[in-house]
Design goal:
By secondary structure, this protein is α/β, with parallel strands linked by helices. The chain has a single domain (about 5-125), classed as Transcription Regulator spoIIAA (2-Layer Sandwich). Helices cover about 35% and strands about 35% of the residues. The protein has three helices and six strands; from the N terminus they run βββαβαβαβ. Strand 3 (about 25-30), helix 1 (about 35-50) and strand 4 form a beta-alpha-beta unit. Helix 1 packs parallel to helix 2. The radius of gyration is 14 Å and the shape is globular.
Length: about 130
């Protein structure tokens, strides 16, 4: 299974999915022209990874901003991860002065509290 490494652009996030380490990292800005097209390879990768996950899958999320269509896909990705037959831990990083991103993280945490380990982590800046 090939890893995914995508560089950040003005409209799409940086992505590093490494199957041999069970690490999925995504962050930056997500306002792609076509959200489905951008996220499709990531969803496909998660589907493949789910068939043989490591004992622990660590997900690091460091978004500065994302649009509504991205938020729907992100929730779907979290729901896919909740079905993996191993432990999944999500670290949701947000800038300490960004109450909107903090609240979005809290919303995801509340929706997934029974399914995933979810930590909200404030930082000074990205």
């Amino acid at each position: 299974m090939e890893d995914i490494h995508l560089e950040r652009t003005l409209k799409t996030p940086e992505v590093h999915f490494v199957s041999s380490k069970g690490e999925l990292e995504i962050g930056g800005i997500s306002i792609p022209e076509n959200t489905v097209d951008f996220y499709h390879p990531l969803i496909y990768w998660i589907t493949q990874y789910s068939s043989e996950p490591l004992e622990l899958t660590k997900v690091v999320v460091k978004f500065e901003y994302f649009n509504t269509s991205s938020s729907v896909v992100i929730l779907n990705i979290f729901r896919m991860l909740s079905e993996i037959k191993s432990k999944v831990k999500i670290d949701w990083y947000y800038e300490s002065d960004d109450s909107e991103m903090q609240e979005l993280g809290q919303d995801y945490q509340a929706m997934l509290k029974d399914e995933l380990e979810f930590a909200l982590i404030p930082i000074d800046s990205f």
